[in-house]
Specification:
mainly alpha, 5 helices, 89% helix, 0% strand
């Protein structure tokens, strides 16, 4: 399981760096015209934070036998894709309804952090 979570972390990190650079250079005019530079930057930051979180979960999965650690990885993966993905789309396209999708991802991220706490508490 830890290998799987490391691959997800690497993917999140790679895509986060690539999108961050593309946003700063290739999409700068679009993001500024849409008034969404901050939105795009928030997505990139959260993606990188949760890439690091996935590395932590990979390590925790080797130290704790609780299924909650595995669930944390699934929740944080799902939350990152939904939260960051919806913010990226919102920033680039200015489709307002995407802002309503982001909190769903946020709930998954919160569930992931809670699952980590439950997983290590129960050891």
């Amino acid at each position: 399981m830890s290998r799987y979570f490391i691959l997800i972390a690497a993917g999140f990190g790679f895509i986060g760096v690539a999108l961050g650079a593309f946003g700063a250079h290739g999409l700068a005019a679009t993001l500024e015209a849409n008034g969404r530079v901050d939105t795009f930057e928030t997505a990139a930051k959260y993606q990188m934070y949760h890439a690091l979180a996935m590395l932590g979960i990979a390590w925790l999965s080797t130290q704790y036998t609780s299924n909650w650690i595995k669930r944390a990885g699934y929740f944080i993966t799902t939350g990152t894709v939904i939260f960051c993905g919806s913010l990226y789309i919102l920033a680039i396209t200015n489709l307002g309804f995407m802002g309503a999708i982001a909190p769903i991802g946020g709930v998954f991220l919160l569930a992931g952090w809670a699952a980590i706490a439950i997983g290590v508490w129960g050891k």
